[in-house]
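User: As part of a screening pipeline, I want to sanity-check one entry by hand. Below is the sequence and the SMILES for magnesium ion. Please return the complex as structure tokens so I can compare it with the automated output.
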Amino acid sequence: MKLGKIKEILEAKVIVGASLEREIRMICACDLMSDVLSCVQSRFSSLLLTNLIHPQTVRTAEIAEIPAICFMRGKEPQDLTMDLAKKNGIVLLSTSFSLYEASGRLYKEGLPGCSEYREAK
Amino acid sequence: MKLKELVEKFDLQIQCAAHRLEREIKGGYVSDLLSDVIANGRAGDLWITLQIHQNIVGVASLKNLAAIIIINGRQPEENTIEKAKNEGIPIMVSKMCAFELVGRLYNAGISGTR
Amino acid sequence: MTPYVKAPKIRELGYELKVRDVMDRNLITVQPETPMSKVRGVLRLNRISGIPVIDKGKLVGVICVEDLVNWLMARADNCSVEEKMSKNVVTLYTDEPLIHAINKLEQYGFFHFPVLERENRELAGTITREGIIRGLLKKLEIDYREEEIRHYRASHVFEDMIADKTSLIFQYYVVGQDFNRAGESASALKKTLKRLGTHPEIVRRAAIAVYEAEMNLVIFARSGEIIVKVDPNQIRIEVEDSGPGIPDIEKAMQPGYSTAPDWVRELGFGAGMGLNNIKKCVDEMNVTSTIGKGTRVEMYVATKKESVSYEVKGTG
Ligand SMILES: Nc1ncnc2c1ncn2[C@@H]1O[C@H](COP(=O)(O)OP(=O)(O)OP(=O)(O)O)[C@@H](O)[C@H]1O
Ligand SMILES: [Mg+2]
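Assistant: Here is the complex for your manual check:
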């Protein structure tokens, strides 16, 4: 699913990033970064949904090659987080939904989590 | 929906407080940040988390949450179970990851908004 | 950051960098009419092995140590540079990729070439082996020690560069408890490995492993360092800290075990998954620790093509 479509489903706002053309193949809903690192398996096509707006979230995405992050409950990160995202070409979105609601909505639209993605492959 | 129905439907392993499964679930909340749950969790919520530390029980009890589901098949620490028993907070374990479990709960009618 | 280099090769950079990026702009030249007796002094003073000969702004030849030696041996009378210089000069243009310079240096066995501006063919600088190596290292953001370059004679380094044999060592110092900078080493290493042309999946696995180890260092220790050795067949990573040590390593390796304090959990760490993630990403891992002294995590990632796994191994 295109990132643009996901933005619509989550009624999200773009905080950093220009293009929403990226194809997203799996979703990871996590707040603990080690969990993110063990969950994400598809380079360049995962979306991270998280409550954590700390710069380490973007750092983790950079390391794991996650192209996009969506923050929850309308949270917007500090400049340091945004700068890091810009530098690494990572798209940042923000939705007013909770992590639960956002996950539910995307799952309903057919996007898989990490184990379903692995099985499908 | 009642906790009891969930246990069967989603293959949850009950860790403690099995006698408190009659409670009606009002909604769901996912977070691994305790401060976030303290700020935004609502009474009657089902809390989905990866945290297994005993502090989760304190938070659940403070916010009067319905139950805690620990994901990725993680086993809660012993003193977490001990504390939850005392507080009467049901803890359950699911093998699924947060996104997949929430997706199914959501499809079963447990919403994140009220 | 004080990594040092044993024998670099970085072919991709050879295409990315241009001759002008690494050439020496310090122009030392002589005229055709300069007497041969003066050449020796100029060479020695500037510690160079050849001098471009310029006439009215145009390069007309090169006079080098060999020409000087021949002239001295012949015990001939003093004469002008013009009579002894090589007139068929092999040159490079400022806008050529560096790889051309590397290839030409190899092909002719020379140590330096004059570099010309393409538009007006005027002399713009000279290019040397040492200059090339220095430029490559700078581009990789590797701080090198001058003596290393001299120690491993430039020609030796060059052979390795051409032969595609690499053995690079990088070293990063990490400050504990500094969350804003945590992960910078892993990020820097990732970029460097990419530039070295390492397989992307290998880069990712190495980066995740280093990141987890670096985060542990930042969270649990005061300071430490990361040493990475990149060989043709494997990447060896050593993360060493002077922290409190791990009492029970076997327990620490279990997924979910964590002693991270609350403030760390609020920053998204402390799932107790870090060491486990490292194990899944590397081919071999050894943890050693002494209470009160520190912890050392050693990891190996094989980089040979046939051993590339295209996925991080499934969750445990
Ligand atoms: N460098 C270290 N110095 C001292 N103790 C360490 C070090 N690295 C790990 N440990 C101990 O091992 C435990 C497990 O480490 P691991 O990286 O697996 O999990 P974590 O760091 O607690 O959480 P996560 O990595 O998921 O954020 C830590 O909680 C800590 O007790
Ligand atoms: Mg860790």
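Points to compare against the pipeline: The pocket of magnesium ion (ligand 2) is lined by residues A 34; C 212, 215-216, 274 (CB under 6 Å). The first helix of chain A runs from residue 3 to 9.
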